[in-house]
């Protein structure tokens, strides 16, 4: 994926930043949807890890839904901002959006299954 940074925005939001490079582009010159979906999947786990301070070993993506709402461009960092909606004994529900300076690129929700606990 390349260089990424993670930070906690506040008590309820985590931000995963990707710095797009040319290999992330599709033939139309926008960030490829597969790159955006990979960033989202990583964001599910980094959001849970950062906001709950939990060891996330032995977990898997159970469900991932996203909606592309705008193009991702090369010259701006791509931020996936996630929040935990609910956590149960075996599952973590996360939602968020992917954005750049020019606006929202995608929105998403996902479920993490805790398998190693």
TrEMBL record:
Record-linked InterPro entries: HotDog_dom_sf, PAAI_dom, Thioestr_dom
Q: Which Pfam families match?
A: 4HBT (PF03061)
Please name the SUPFAM superfamilies in this protein's record.
Answer: Thioesterase/thiol ester dehydrase-isomerase (SSF54637)
Q: Which UniProt keywords apply?
A: Hydrolase
Where in the numbering of this chain does the Thioesterase domain appear? 28-105
Named from the GO MF annotations, one term is: acyl-CoA hydrolase activity
Would I find Heme among this entry's keywords? no
* NCBIfam families the UniProt entry points to: unchar_dom_1
**Protein's UniProt name:** Hotdog fold thioesterase
């Amino acid at each position: 994926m390349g260089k990424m940074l993670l930070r906690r925005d506040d008590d309820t939001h985590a931000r995963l930043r990707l710095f797009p490079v040319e290999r992330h582009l599709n033939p139309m010159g926008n960030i490829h949807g597969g790159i955006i979906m990979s960033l989202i999947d990583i964001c599910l786990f980094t959001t849970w890890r950062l906001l709950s301070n939990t060891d996330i070993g032995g977990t898997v993506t159970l469900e991932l839904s996203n909606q592309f709402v705008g193009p991702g461009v090369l010259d701006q960092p791509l931020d996936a901002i996630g929040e935990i909606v609910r956590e149960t004994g075996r599952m973590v529900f996360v939602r968020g959006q992917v954005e750049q300076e020019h606006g929202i690129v995608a929105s998403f929700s996902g479920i993490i299954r805790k398998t190693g606990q």
